[in-house]
Design goal:
The complex is a heterodimer of chains A (about 200) and B (about 150). Chain A has about 200 residues and is mainly α. Chain A contains nine helices and one strand. The chains are: A mainly alpha (about 200), B mainly alpha (about 150). The interface between A and B is large, with 64 and 46 residues.
C-alpha cells in the first residue's frame, strides 16, 4: 500500500473525515494515504531527513487520530493537519538540538527527499529536471526555516494565502510579505536554472 | 515584525496576488495592462512565474510500501504502548498508595517502615530517571531500527 492516491473533492474529503470522526477506521486509513506523501514533503523541510520526516508524519497523524473530535466538520482539513504537523516538527527540532549539542554523526542525508520531476516528462527532460530538482532542494536548504516552510506550503502543497495564514498562525499580509521575500531569495539562488526556463 | 516580513509596496502586493491567482478577474485584467506597459514589473512577474513553473514540475517522492508498513506498525505500537502505560501507572499508583497506607497503619517497627518507604521511593526515582532518559534520547537514536 503506497501513499499515492487521486486527490478528493472537498465534499468527498468532508465525508471521509466525518466517517473517521465517527470511528470508521477505514476512512482514517484513506485519509492517511491521501496526506502521507504531502506530510513527508512538508516535514522534510523542517527535519531535513526522510526517516525523521516519516516519524513526524506519524506523530501528526497520531495526534489527529486522538483529537479528531476537536475538528469542526466542514472546516478545511489541510490547514488543520499541517498546523499539527508543523508543531510536531518544531518540537522535534527543539528537542533534537538539545540532544545533539555535540554530534559525532555527519550531516543527515537528504537525498531520498529530493522532489522528483513530474512523471509526464520524457526521459531526457527528466534527467535535466532531476538536476534542477537537486539544485532547487539545495537552494531550499540555504533558506531560513521560515522561508523554507512558506515555500513548501505554497509551491508544493498549493495552499492559498488563507490556509497558509492558518497553518503558520500569522496574518495574510505577513504571508504575502514573507512569501515575497522567500521567493526573492530562492530566485537569486536558482538564477542560473531560471535563465534556462525563461 | 522582523526583516523577514518587511512590508510590501502596493505593487509588490499586487504582483503576489497576480502570481498566486488571488485576484478577481477585473483586477487581473487591470494588472495585465500594467504588465504590458511596465517592463520592470513584467520582469519581476516573469521571475516569480518561472519559479512557480519549476516547482510545479516537481512532485515530492511518495512513501514506499515499506515506509507505509513501518508507519502503520509504529502507529499501532504507539496506541498500544500509550494504553499500556496508562494502565500500568494507574495500577502502580493505586497499589503503591494502598501499600503505603497499610504499612503506616501496621504494627511494624519504625525502622522497617522507613526502610520500606525508602526502597519504594528509590525504586520510583530510578524508574522515572531511566524512563525520562530513554524518552529523551530514543527518538534521536539513528540505530533504533537496527536489530542488534
Amino acid at each position: 500500500m503506497s501513499g499515492s492516491r487521486a486527490p478528493l473533492t472537498v465534499a468527498e474529503e468532508i465525508r471521509l473525515i466525518a466517517g473517521a470522526k465517527h470511528g470508521d477506521h477505514g476512512n482514517f486509513e484513506t485519509l492517511v494515504e491521501l496526506y502521507m506523501g504531502r506530510a513527508i514533503g512538508v516535514a522534510m523541510g523542517y527535519v531535513r531527513n526522510r526517516h525523521d520526516a516519516i516519524d513526524m508524519a506519524n506523530d501528526a497523524f497520531f495526534r489527529v487520530y486522538k483529537h479528531l473530535d476537536r475538528f469542526r466538520e466542514g472546516e478545511r482539513f489541510a490547514p488543520w493537519f499541517f498546523r499539527i504537523l508543523r508543531n510536531c516538527c518544531l518540537n522535534f527540532i527543539q528537542k533534537r538540538s538539545r540532544a545533539r549539542q555535540v554530534s559525532i554523526h555527519p550531516k543527515d542525508d537528504d537525498s531520498l527527499g529530493i522532489p522528483l520531476p513530474d512523471d509526464a516528462l520524457g526521459p531526457t527532460a527528466k534527467a535535466e529536471d532531476q538536476e534542477v530538482s537537486r539544485e532547487l532542494w539545495k537552494a531550499m536548504e540555504n533558506l531560513s526555516l521560515q522561508h523554507r516552510e512558506i515555500i513548501l506550503l505554497r509551491h508544493f502543497q498549493d495552499l492559498d494565502y488563507a490556509s497558509i495564514a492558518e497553518v503558520l498562525e500569522i496574518p495574510i499580509g505577513t504571508v504575502m510579505s514573507r512569501l515575497f521575500h522567500a521567493r526573492k531569495k530562492l530566485g537569486v539562488l536558482m538564477e542560473p536554472y531560471m535563465e534556462g526556463q525563461k | 515584525m522582523t526583516d523577514l516580513d518587511a512590508p510590501l509596496t502596493s505593487d509588490q502586493e499586487k504582483l503576489m496576488a497576480y502570481v498566486d491567482d488571488e485576484m478577481s478577474p477585473e483586477e487581473r485584467t487591470e494588472f495585465e495592462k500594467r504588465l504590458a506597459a511596465e517592463p520592470e514589473l513584467a520582469a519581476e512577474s516573469a521571475g516569480f512565474q518561472c519559479l512557480t513553473d519549476i516547482t510545479k514540475s516537481m512532485t515530492l517522492a511518495e512513501p514506499t510500501d515499506h515506509e507505509m508498513r513501518r508507519f502503520w506498525e509504529s502507529f499501532y505500537n504507539r496506541s498500544e504502548w500509550q494504553i499500556g502505560w496508562i494502565l500500568l501507572i494507574t495500577g502502580v499508583v493505586i497499589l503503591g498508595g494502598y501499600g503505603v497506607f497499610e504499612l503506616l497503619r501496621s504494627g511494624q517497627p519504625l525502622l522497617i517502615k522507613i526502610a520500606a518507604l525508602a526502597a519504594l521511593a528509590g525504586g520510583g526515582i530510578l524508574f522515572w530517571n531511566t524512563l525520562r532518559l530513554k524518552m529523551r534520547t530514543s527518538r534521536f537514536d539513528r540505530y533504533r531500527g537496527v536489530m542488534r
